[in-house]
TrEMBL record:
This is Glycosyltransferase family 1 protein. The keyword Flavoprotein does not apply. It comes from the Bacteria. Keywords: Glycosyltransferase, Transferase. Residues 30-195 form the Glycosyltransferase subfamily 4-like N-terminal domain. InterPro entries: Glyco_trans_4-like_N (IPR028098), Glycosyltransferase_grp1 (IPR050194). It comes from Novosphingobium aquae. Its EC number is 2.4.-.-. One of its GO terms (molecular function) is glycosyltransferase activity. Pfam families: Glyco_trans_1_4, Glyco_transf_4. The lineage of its organism: Bacteria, Pseudomonadati, Pseudomonadota, Alphaproteobacteria, Sphingomonadales.
Amino acid sequence: MAEPLQADPKAPLADLRIALFSGNYNYVRDGANQALNRLVGYLLRQGAQVRVYSPTVPEPAFPATGDLVSVPSIAFPGRGEYRFPLALSPRLRSDLAAFAPNIVHISSPDIVAHRAVTWARHRKLPVLASVHTRFETYFRYYNMAWFEPAVEAMLRRLYRRCDALVAPSESMAQVLRDQRMNYDIDIWSRGVDRDLFNPGLRSLEWRRNLGIGDEEIVVGFHSRLVMEKGLDVFSDTIDELRRRGVVHRTLIVGDGPAREWLEDRLPDAIFAGFMGGQDLGKAVASMDVLFFPSTTETFGNVTLEAMACNLPVVAAAATGSESLVADNKSGRLIPPGAITQFADAIVTYLDDADLRAKHGAAGERRARDFSWDRINQAVADTYLRLIRQRAKKR
């Protein structure tokens, strides 16, 4: 096994050997694995060595950054696009031993992550867990809210066995503290690519191709279309706008297993489908207001991308959005599920072009603070700190 890093506060990142475990590194695109791939890319550029362990599929959503080792998995029941990791097999244990990491990073609370933590603890290696979503809340959207306390207890057991956690926002870190998950929690925020998301990408031609008039005001949503993104609240609010006779267009960018449900629910909405890269930036910049009522975000990449495009954001007052949106300055934060209040906030923006512009500009200024390199260096600094702390205990 590789010798641990010495307690040198200026130790170079080239001394890092990171074993990263992910439940979904690249087979389905989402905000969490986009952040992980960016992190790995940054670490590799700094000379660190990273080996990623994750389920794989023959045709992933995008190429993996770094060395990817396939973890045995099966399709997740009821959500076949996702894979359920099965075991830290002898093959993986042999690969780990050959790689000889000096820190282990887990990013999803699955069986293999539990086994990886045990593997690391037996070898007195530090373990960092990154928290990307509020898994315990997902069961509310599938009529299984009764199961949430048990899931929270299972998460606590895993996270308390880790040396530290990183969370995407201070609001999420406080939730984790309140849940007694761990008391060593650093912030690993999220960045935004300003080449892909900026006001200059707004395109009236793109809107026209979708049948949107130049003077029409667009209430937009962009995310993976799954129920835990608040699609029920979104559709109920759009219905409320319709009942009030509020003139607007609803634009939904994204795809997922709940798309058919949402298309049936909102037959007058425009569904642009999945987009990536600059096409996605153009779609977001071509909206006028982002409406994002999800309560399961730990950060809110969608919110930050809209802010970078100069849009005011109407969001649920929940983890993630609370750390990004300044209420009544760059958008509105509304109590989760408060349909009438969501509708009121959207109407205010639809009726007041000057307020849209003012709050959009404030959000764009805030988005300038989120540099990916600075953000990813914070994770690297946490790796180095945990290795130094572990070395002192030997």
